[in-house]
Amino acid sequence: MPKLAELTGDENSGESSRTFVFEDEGHTLGNVLKSIICKYPDVNFCGYTVPHPAENKMHFRIQAAKSVRAIDVLRRGLEDLERVCDHTIDTFEAAVAKYHEKESK
């Protein structure tokens, strides 16, 4: 199975509502991605579940305005998350460099 798939049987709910299944993911990605996507004005609902602790997968549900595709919302959320991570790494590395520079004097 690929790392990301749509939940079987969900295709009848329209393009704006989908449940995606992430393999080898859990609360770490689910919680932060939900926090980002819930802030979008065109999203009516966003949530995730980990169906069972023994299964290494996460179900991620998006319900958006009728004019918006859920897959596009997911893509935008993942891109925004990537930008947040890049900013965090850059900020951390700059702080470490500043610390080492200060300590070497």
Describe the protein in words.
By secondary structure, the protein is of the alpha+beta class. The chain has one domain: 2-Layer Sandwich (Gyrase A, domain 2), CATH 3.30.1360. The chain has helices at residues 27-37, 70-103; strands at 4-6, 17-23, 43-49, 57-64. The protein has a 4-stranded antiparallel beta sheet, covered by helices on one side. Helix 1 (27-37) packs across helix 2.
CATH class: Alpha Beta
Per CATH, the architecture is: 2-Layer Sandwich
When the domains are counted, the total is: 1
What's the rounded overall pLDDT mean? 93
Question: How would you spell out the order of helices and strands?
Answer: EEHEEH
| SS class | alpha+beta
What is the radius of gyration?
18 Å
Number of strands: 4
Terminus-to-terminus distance: 54 Å
* Shape field: elongated
**How much beta, percentage-wise?**
15-25%
Helix content: 40-55%
Instruction: Write the CATH fold name.
Output: Gyrase A, domain 2
Low-confidence stretches: none
InterPro entries: RBP11-like, RBP11-like_dimer, RNA_pol_Rpb11_13-16kDa_CS, RNAP_AC19, Rpo11-like
Keywords: DNA-directed RNA polymerase, Nucleus, Transcription
Protein name: DNA-directed RNA polymerases I and III subunit RPAC2
Subcellular location: Nucleus
